[in-house]
Every structure is written in structure tokens, then in C-alpha cells.
Write a structure and sequence with these properties.
two-stranded antiparallel sheet; 23% helix
Length: 57
């Protein structure tokens, strides 16, 4: 089974170093971008167990 990787979200600040906002764990950069976009948009996340074959039990 694959392990998710940490992705850190930074806020750019003109003239200063970027500010770290939060870290999420995702399987790919594309997945991390979708999760962050949904978080910023205020979406609700419901996370539950998923079987190894992809079907929930």
C-alpha cells in the first residue's frame, strides 16, 4: 500500500519569506492541490475507511 506524502502550504508575503499555513498528506501533488482548493473554498470533508480494492466497507 502506498504511503501519503506531506505537502506544506505557504502564503507568499511580498518582501518577506513565505509564511507556512498548514501541512496536508496526499498521494500526489495533484491530489494535494485539489484538497487545498476545497479547504480554501470551505468544502466539508467526510473521510471514512476504504478497502484496499477501492470499495468502501
Amino acid at each position: 500500500m502506498r504511503n501519503p506524502k506531506p505537502f506544506t502550504v505557504f502564503q507568499p508575503i511580498p518582501g518577506q519569506n513565505p509564511k507556512q499555513l498548514f501541512t496536508i498528506h496526499a498521494y500526489s501533488l495533484a491530489q494535494a492541490r485539489v484538497i487545498v482548493a476545497a479547504m480554501i473554498a470551505g468544502e466539508t470533508f467526510v473521510i471514512g475507511p476504504v478497502a484496499l480494492d477501492g470499495a468502501s466497507r
